[in-house]
Design a protein that fits this description.
- The complex is a heterotrimer of chains A (281), B (350) and C (315).
- Chain A is built from eight helices and 15 strands.
- Chain A is of the alpha/beta class.
- Chain A has two domains: 93 residues, Elongation Factor Tu (Ef-tu), domain 3 (Beta Barrel), CATH 2.40.30.10; 127 residues, Rossmann fold (3-Layer(aba) Sandwich).
- In chain A, strand 13 and strand 14 form a beta hairpin.
- In chain A, helix 6 runs parallel beside helix 7.
- The longest helix of chain A has 13 residues.
- Chain A starts with 7 loop residues before the first strand and ends in a 6-residue tail after the last helix.
- In chain B, helix 1 crosses helix 5.
- Chain B is globular.
- With 315 residues, chain C is of the alpha/beta class.
- Chain C folds into three domains: 129 residues, no CATH class; 38 residues, no CATH class; 133 residues, no CATH class.
- In chain C, 30% of the residues lie in helices and 15% in strands.
- Chain C contains ten helices and nine strands.
- In chain C, the strands form two sheets. In chain C, strands 1, 2, 3, 4, 5 and 9 form a six-stranded mixed beta sheet that branches. In chain C, strands 6-7-8 form a three-stranded antiparallel beta sheet, with no helix packed on it.
- In chain C, strand 4, helix 2 and strand 5 form a beta-alpha-beta unit.
- The chains are: A alpha/beta (281), B alpha/beta (350), C alpha/beta (315).
- Chains in contact: A-B, B-C.
- Chains A and B meet through strand 4 and strand 6 of A and strand 4, helix 4, helix 7, strand 9 and strand 10 of B.
Chain lengths: 281, 350, 315
């Protein structure tokens, strides 16, 4: 019997400080047993439990794409006990990963459709995974137009800046990067909150267009009416939730919204699904 | 399935023989109350209590269970790698479990033994156990098992069911596991199915507390969730974990790491939806930060979410423990009636 | 219906009708024998739900903190002392509560009743100082005094320490009662014996925190056992952690505990948790002459310094 609580041992290969406040770091992990990497086969939108021996576990969205081989990446905000311990770790340290967990963005349903990705702050991790995966030549041809609206408080708070700039230069993805306030004079992208930029830049909703929304509650709250205005069906607004989790496999009982477990039945839900469940997230 | 008759003298001798092939567990008085405990050779399970204070769930799902061990010492080759501790999964004989508690395991199994994931700790413990039930001829007044999908003579989840008939037990051997245990104990006298049935019928009629739950499945989740009665129902609650810890069906747990020096372990501990920490995000945000939200969660889980998710009735076997042990008299029977009768827009009697 | 219940309903109705308070916190009849349930009434038409009997042992001071409403509260002697403590500790404002004081004859110990009854207890009636217990095996009558909770049997502040209105005649206090016989027994034990005593006392604890949550003193937003940064106590069933919880909780109650007995009453495992708090209550009395919650006009000993402090460490 495979023990779903067993964390695959991994070595920290690289630690990248992502943001100017130094509260967000990206960790690149290599599995000690290469066989475990195969077992950890994932799809963009899923998450893993990062396990710091002696401290505990935290559920974190997978930031790398399945098309990137030999490692997995997670971007972690420093908040609690485990994430603080993790931020103090260095390349070479040994820890564990469980997963992949949860469902993923509905890539099969979205096949052949246009996709608008709306992200804010540090909730951009599984969206990065999605973009890298979508832009892989094997997948790009299966989807229509791709728009990305991504905002942070300031330029220094944007995640994955090098990649954002690289995607800006491509013609097979429409990037709409924005910041609440530009503190550098050479900022040449958008200034303004994500909902406003979405209203100005996102294509109108129709049967062939899906929106994936992932961000802080305040962003989600104000983006949803914009998407309504643009005509997106609530069945085609895809959202990813966070809740406190422990087991990650639908057993420990704390992350439920109604009868659904965010960890196992989610974290990805359509807005239509969410409207039928209590708002306990 | 076959019927046996076991004279009480043979019962005692048979129990003696179980020590050896089995680890033997049964009710034992500790302090004020009876609870399930491992029995030593020479000790007999004490069948004098109506029901144990804590349910039998801790036998299969201990309040604290070690999941992994590890070392943090970088000089050891496998440092920071989790290892499963060696555990005793040899056969257990659980003597004198009430049918409600045995039935509860079949509900808890839905959580720990799923098509996608298997909790190995629960599953291996459960597989190791042979359950010898003791039917209830005198159900308590707070028991409502017959309204909760089980009953004083329910055989669900049992391997053997005993009925006390004075100088002897009437027994039903229900499974292969049960046959093995009965053989090990040497109980073989032919039983009396008719007498057993008559006792079962009489016992069922003695369960006086009834609860209506039939309409719960048809209710809209968000209607019940938004119902106006929660503040009143939750007022008295002090948010302790008594109801959840005594409950045979509550399964929620926490995972904690503990370290002493360089050696550490990962533990699985019972947890409770009554505690604010249960759902508190790292940021401090708490989706169920208010007492009424947590009380609502407990009852919505038991009486609505579970009903909808598994189609296996309510998440409760009517054992009555939470009813009698709640320090402030929050009564699931009353809550169930209110939920079952609730129509949005209509005044509800609280 | 008893006279006290009648009077409480009258007062509650008047207060709600006059708009003096937004809600009345009291007890309603329970669903099982020997249980009355804390409840609130906002509508004067519903005051007849309120009851008073020997099963109102839960301390209602516990229900008054972090609320916005103007409240009336039905409060027996110990409850009023905890209300005073809440006011002193700035948990509630005096003008926010209207105290309906109940001179108290003591609460019935449901475990004593269960032990003395013949079979499962089906109903318990109080009348004229007697308690009639109907159980599966028949009816028995007891003197009320024989069935009191341990803390009530040694209570010497039965009457409200602070109230706006009384719901009954004051009762005779019993100032000469020996409150600390059991504590002296423990004090007389040697270290090893004490250790064994406490170990056995706590052996059945399931860490449900009913004792803490029933206690009006335990209003900390985050209890030390729930802290994660740093984590002071393990959360499993290790006896060290269980002990730490109980010992520290008792120390947190030093000079504040009114011996209301809510903790012991709430414990589902029947652990006599007052054994911990009582020792500190005795110390507060003997070292500082302090009894918690008797007056709004003095600070408790643990938040004041006096040059004549009996502890040598402070000099």
């Amino acid at each position: 019997m495979q023990n779903p609580y067993f964390p695959y041992p991994v070595r920290i290969d690289e630690v990248i400080t992502e943001t100017e406040d130094k509260n967000l770091k990206t960790f690149k992990f290599v599995f000690l047993d290469p066989g475990d990497e195969k077992k950890f086969a994932y799809t963009p939108g899923q998450f893993g439990e990062l396990s710091v021996t002696g401290k505990g576990e935290i559920p974190i969205g997978i930031a790398s794409s399945p098309t990137e081989k030999g490692f997995v990446k997670f971007t972690v905000n420093k908040v609690g006990v485990v994430s603080t311990a993790l931020h103090n770790m260095v390349p070479g340290d040994i820890m564990g990963i469980r997963g992949p967990m949860g469902n993923w963005y509905p890539w099969e349903r979205m096949r052949g459709k246009n996709i608008v990705i709306v992200g804010g702050g540090f909730a951009f991790t599984t969206l990065r995974s999605s973009i890298v995966w979508l832009l892989d030549p094997a997948n790009r041809k299966n989807y229509g137009d791709i728009h990305v609206i991504y905002g942070a408080r300031s330029p220094g708070m944007l995640l994955y800046r090098d990649e954002l700039m690289e995607w800006e230069r491509r013609d097979d993805i429409h990037m709409h990067i924005t910041v609440d306030r530009a503190d550098t004079p050479d900022w040449k992208y958008n200034v303004g909150f994500v909902p406003a930029v979405t209203e100005a830049k996102a294509p109108p909703g129709d049967a062939d267009t899906f929106a994936i929304v992932c961000g802080p509650p305040i962003m989600i709250k104000f983006t949803q009416p914009v998407l309504d205005k643009l005509g997106y069906s609530h069945d085609q607004i895809i959202m990813s939730l966070e809740n406190r989790m422990k087991c990650g496999i639908g057993m420990c009982g704390r992350c439920n919204i109604g009868m659904e477990f965010v960890c196992k039945d989610g974290p990805v839900f359509t807005l239509n699904q969410l409207k039928k469940t209590p708002r306990e997230y | 399935m076959r019927d046996l008759k076991i004279a009480k003298t043979d019962w005692a001798k048979g129990v003696e023989k179980l020590f050896g092939p089995y680890r033997v567990f049964g009710p034992k008085k500790e302090g004020l109350f009876h609870n399930f405990a491992r029995l030593e050779k020479g000790e007999a399970p004490d069948f004098s209590c109506k029901n144990t204070r804590l349910s039998a769930k801790g036998l299969i799902y201990p309040q604290t269970e070690k999941m992994f061990e590890y070392t943090l010492d970088p000089n050891k080759p496998d440092h920071h790698v989790h290892k499963e501790p060696v555990k005793d999964y040899s056969p257990m004989a659980v003597l004198g479990i009430r049918p409600c508690d045995a039935k509860a395991f079949t509900l808890v199994k839905l959580n720990f033994d799923t098509p996608e994931y298997k909790d190995p700790y629960w599953i291996k413990n459960y597989a190791a156990a042979t359950f010898v039930g003791l039917a209830c001829d005198a159900p308590c007044h707070a028991c409502f098992c017959t309204s909760a999908g089980t009953g004083p003579y329910d055989t669900a989840g049992l391997d053997v069911l005993l009925a006390d008939a004075g100088d002897f037990f009437l027994a039903k051997v229900l499974t292969e596991k049960g046959e093995k245990l009965v053989a090990a104990a040497g109980w073989a006298g032919a039983g009396d199915a008719g007498a057993f049935e008559a006792k079962a019928k009489a016992a069922g009629d003695k369960v006086v507390s009834k609860v209506n739950t039939a309409k719960l499945a048809g209710k809209v989740t968000n209607d019940l969730h938004a119902a106006p009665f929660w503040e009143d129902l939750a007022f008295a609650c002090i948010n302790c974990g008594t109801c959840t810890y005594l409950c045979p069906t509550c399964w929620c747990f926490d995972i904690q790491d503990e370290v002493c020096g360089t050696e550490g372990c990962r533990l699985k501990n019972w947890d409770s939806c009554m505690y604010p920490l249960f759902t508190m995000h790292g940021t401090g945000h708490n989706p169920r930060g208010e007492k009424a939200q947590r009380v609502r969660q407990r009852f919505m889980h038991k009486l609505k979410y579970f009903v909808d998710k598994y189609g296996a009735g309510i998440h409760c076997v009517g054992c009555g423990r939470c009813v009698t042990a709640c320090p402030v008299n929050i009564d699931i029977r009353r809550v169930a009636e209110i939920m079952n009768g609730y129509e949005p827009g209509k005044d509800c009697a609280v | 219906m008893n006279a006290m219940t009648d009077k409480i309903r009258q007062i509650a109705r008047r207060l709600l009708e006059e708009g003096k308070v937004d809600m009345v916190v009291g007890f309603r009849k329970g669903t099982v024998p020997m249980m009355s349930e804390p409840c609130f009434i906002k509508d004067s038409a519903r005051v007849d739900a309120l009851v008073w009997d020997g099963n109102c042992g839960i301390n209602l001071a516990n229900y008054l903190t972090r609320r916005k409403e103007r409240m009336a509260v039905v409060a027996k002697g110990c409850d009023t002392r905890n209300i005073v403590t809440h006011i002193i500790e700035n948990q509630i404002r005096r003008e926010q509560v209207y105290i309906i004081g109940v001179p108290c004859q003591g609460m019935i110990d449901k475990r004593k009743v269960k032990n003395l009854a013949d079979g499962e207890v089906l109903s318990v009636e109080e009348k004229d100082g007697k308690v009639v217990v109907t159980a599966g095996g028949g009816e028995k009558s007891f003197d009320r005094t024989a069935l009191l909770q341990d803390n009530c049997a040694i209570c010497h502040h039965k009457n409200p320490a602070l109230s706006d209105e009384l719901a009954g005649e004051l009762v005779r206090e019993n100032p000469d009662v020996d409150r600390y016989e059991d504590v002296r027994k423990v004090e007389a034990m040697g270290a090893a014996e004490k250790w064994k005593f406490f170990d056995e006392l706590l052996s059945t604890c399931i860490r449900c925190y009913a004792c803490r949550n029933a206690c009006p003193l335990c209003y900390c937003p985050t209890c030390f056992v729930d802290e994660s940064k740093p984590q002071w106590v393990g959360k499993g069933q290790d006896p060290t952690d269980t002990r730490t919880f109980h010992f520290l909780r008792a120390f947190h109650c030093a000079g504040r505990c009114t011996d209301c007995g809510s903790c012991e009453r709430a414990c589902p495992m029947g652990i006599p948790v007052r054994q911990f708090t009582k020792k500190l209550e005795k110390d507060a009395k003997e070292l500082f002459g302090w009894e918690a919650g008797m007056t709004l006009d003095a600070r408790p000993p643990l938040d004041t310094f006096r040059p004549d402090d009996p502890g040598a460490f402070i000099k």
